[in-house]
Amino acid sequence: VPLVESGGGLVQAGGSLRLSCVASGFTFDDYSIGWFRQAPGKEREGVSCINTLDGMSYYGDSVKGRFTISSDNAKNTLYLQMNSLKPEDTAVYYCAAGPYSCAVVGAPWGDYWGQGTQVTVSS
């Protein structure tokens, strides 16, 4: 399995969680990497990504100012620090990687996907 997420769980509104995604079989240096989420009955949406071409980080409007994406390329690990969580953040969170530019809008991208980790925010 090329990507494995962890760190999900149950948290109260206003709380924090940090998700991790460990890659195997490829290195982050040549890949855009990012996070998506999917709530029940909804389409998968982009949350945040790091673009391999310019090293810039991008965020969806609903998480700007609350979530922070980072990576440790030496450990082949991607992180998502989630603060000020809201009930509407409840979803399964997936990490993805692909050797091209990333985006947080439009169709989900990624040559590699993790199995997802559940995040539940109670009100």
Compile the SSE list and pairings.
Elements: E1 3-6, E2 9-12, E3 17-23, E4 32-38, E5 45-50, E6 57-59, E7 67-72, E8 77-82, E9 91-98, E10 112-113, E11 117-122
Parallel strand pairs: 2-11
Antiparallel strand pairs: 1-3, 3-8, 4-5, 4-9, 5-6, 7-8, 9-10, 9-11
Q: Concise description?
A:
It is built from no helices and eleven strands.
Write a structural description:
This protein is an all-beta fold. The chain has strands at residues 3-6, 9-12, 17-23, 32-38, 45-50, 57-59, 67-72, 77-82, 91-98, 112-113, 117-122. The relative contact order is 0.33. The mean pLDDT is 94.
Query: Strand pairing plus helix content: what structural class?
Result: mainly beta
- What is the CA-atom radius of gyration, in angstroms? 13 Å
**Major sheet details:** 7 strands, mixed
- List low-confidence stretches: none
The total beta strand count reads 11
Distance between the termini: 34 Å
Q: How many distinct helices?
A: 0
What keyword list fits this structure?
four-stranded antiparallel sheet, seven-stranded mixed sheet, 123 residues, mainly beta, single chain
